[in-house]
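Researcher: Next sequence.
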Amino acid sequence: MKPGLLLLALWTLASAHAEPRLLYTKTFPGSVPAYVSIRVERNGDGEYKDSPDDDRPLKFHLAAADANALFALVDKLDRLRRPLESPAKVAFMGMKTFRFEDGAEQHEVKFNYSEDLDARQLADWFERIIETEQLRISLERAAKYDKLGLNKAILQLETAMDHKRIVDAEQMLPVLDRVAKNESYINMARQRAAAIAEAIRASKP
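Model: Next structure:
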C-alpha cells in the first residue's frame, strides 16, 4: 500500500475508534482570564487552560453523571449542527465556542448570547468548571506564596461549594490535606481546610 493511502487508512481507523469529546473556548478581552479553553472526554477526563499556549493544563475528572449530563445537552442541541446566537441586541459577554468531535464527525458553533435554554445550561456547566479551576489556582497559589491570604481563598472555595458551583471537588483534596496537616499555616485555615476535605469525602457516592 502506498504511504499516503496507508496514512489515510490509519487515520480513518483511529477516527472510527475515537471517543466523543466536547471542547469549549471563551475569549473576552479585558476580563480575567481573557481566554479559557476546556476539553471534556466522554469518559469524564478533562483539562483546563487559561492561555492558548498553556503547556501545563489543569486536569480534572467529571463523575459519570456529570459527563452524561454534558453530552446529553449536546445531543439536545443536535450535536451543535444549528446556530445558537440570539438575534437580540445585547452587550458583548465574550465569544463562546462549543465544539463536538466524534471520530470524523465534527461540529462547531460560536455565539455571544443565546436564548436557547439548553445552550445556556451547557454554557453554565463550563462556567462552573472555570470557577472551579480558578479557585483551585487561587488556593494552590495562596498555599505556596501567600499564607496570610490562604484563609480567604479557602472561604471563597467554601462559598462556591455552598452555592453548588464546584465541579469535581475531589481535585481540591491534595492542597486541602496539605494545608490541614501543615502547622505553619494559621489554625483557622487548617481547621477550615480539614472540614472542607471531610465534607468532600463524605459526599462521594
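Model: The chain has one domain: 19-202. The mean pLDDT is 92.
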